[in-house]
Prior knowledge:
Layout: H1 2-33, H2 37-58, H3 61-68, H4 72-79, E1 85-92, E2 98-103, E3 114-123, E4 129-140
Antiparallel strand pairs: 1-2, 1-4, 3-4
Amino acid sequence: MFGLSKAFIFTLDAILSILICTILFFSAYSILSKFQYSTVRQISLFDTCADVLTSLEKNHTLSNSIYYSRTSDIRTILSNISSNVCSNLVIYSSGNAPLLVVQRPDCQCDASHTTLVRSFVIPNSNGTLSEYLAKMEACPK
């Protein structure tokens, strides 16, 4: 009789363990299913825009594009971003007039997109500074 009660307790223990594991699994699934992947994607796009604008400013590509009125360097950089990201960049003068517009050649942002604006200055030959804005938009392809 004593062996039968051990088997009953062992079976009951196994059933309770399976029940607890099932409850934990469905609880975790419920919490994770509410997680928004689109939020992660937007943060990733924002970080991409910030990195691209920072590197364009630091390596003087933005200022050179304004000096020489060419967009080829910026277009090359936008084309080398991940193939899953569409992007465009507009450089505005201090009077908010668009000076240069560069778009990744193989796509266009129509869906929800992330926008980041960065200001930068370029020294003039007379010792003054000219202020410009670079506005970058990125969206998933």
